[in-house]
Amino acid sequence: MAEFLINDDELRGLKGKAVIVTGGSSGIGQATVELLLSLGARVINADLQEPAKQPESSAAGEYAFVKTNVTIWTDLVAMFKKTKGLYGRIDSVFANAGLGPRADFLSMEVDDNGDLKEPNYDVIDVSLKGLMNTCTLALYHIRQQADGGSIVLCGSTTGLQRLRAVDYSTAKHGVIGFGRSLTTLTKAAQLPVRVNTLAPTWTDSSVLPNLRGMMEQIGVEIQPASAVARAAALLMADASRHGNLLHVACGRYKEIDDAVLLPAFDTIKGDYPGEDDVLERLLAVMAGGQA
Predict the structure, then answer these.
(1) Comparing C-alpha atoms, which of 57, 6, 13, 3 is closest to residue 230?
(2) Which is nearest to 148 in space by CA: 183, 190, 85?
(3) Is 168 part of the annotated catalytic residue set?
(4) pLDDT-above-70 percentage for the chain
(5) At what angle do helices 225-237 and 27-38 cross, to 10 degrees?
(6) 189-222 pLDDT, tens per residue?
(7) Residue 253 annotated among the catalytic residues of the structure
(8) Domains of the chain
(9) Which residue is catalytic, options 63, 87, 168, 253?
(10) Which keywords, in A-to-Z order, does the entry hold (predicted)?
């Protein structure tokens, strides 16, 4: 599992590409929008709120904001149609929109009847279901292009750990699982769509209020959103990358699925066949083929 650097030359191929970034008005999304524009890409920022400061298209990149609630299917459908209308195609989609922790699973709060109130599932709706719907529409549009395109999912290292922010951790575990599964599905269906996932650690964003200031108080380094944006751009630009899970920590990059997670599971399962191998054979039997 070797660390690697991302060179500017590796990102040049994004010039003129049409890219959708959900949640592009702040944090990682905003940094990605700005980077893509500097590389000459044509970018749709799909967010509920416009950014506080409009991005600069310093390399003649094109930019449009489309107000989008990723939890509403019709909003997403309209946003994808708008992108196709403006740019004629969709080369990459960065499913990035998300929320910080909200739910309290130890709550003692009750309603007027004295019954425990249901937990808040906004994080699941936005960060997981919204991401899955975004990717579903991305697959629908990109697969219709002969040369295909790419999808990048914004996961988190919290999807690889035990974390007391239960709703956030659950969503990010789901994102990583969704990305890994989509990788297998698109390969099996022979679709011209690459799927890769990011797993950044603590990043300067709005996931918690005044995050940078609090991190300074406790003496823990926090990476700039631009470090994660470079990883997202690399996954869009590098046509050889499919099925990567990139760990991003303080501007250091490592691929960890092929390098760590899959080999680790091979040692756990031993000689027993992998579940996807078994599923492939079962589907063949169900279709009347040979196992």
Answers:
(1) 6
(2) 190
(3) yes
(4) 97
(5) 50
(6) 999 999 999 999 999 887 777 888 888 889 989 8
(7) no
(8) 8-255 (3.40.50.720)
(9) 168
(10) Oxidoreductase
